[in-house]
Amino acid sequence: MGIDTPGRVKFIRTEEGDIVVRPIRSVTDLRGVLEGKTDEQGCSATERLQEERTADKASEEELRQRYAGDDEADERRTALRFPKRSSSTLNH
Fold first, then answer.
1. If both were cysteines, with which of 24, 29, 45, 90 could 8 make a disulfide (CB 3.0 to 4.6 Å apart)?
2. Which residue ranges of the chain lie beneath pLDDT 50?
């Protein structure tokens, strides 16, 4: 059937209702396989991906805002624990 081991296949339903098995040789062979398909909420794969990317960006921004001042606070804590010494102090 032209399917190498370990092989990957895709199943395609024809307009007549037949199922055709085709080998997948590369990721680009999957292009269009979800065209016209929707999930339980009626979203296409592209819409779902866009929603997830938007949610990821919002989550990243929330983390940035939450921890934005931490670098400065870390520097202050470090300075308190390890005060800078003058060169004359270091030589003695």
1. 24
2. none
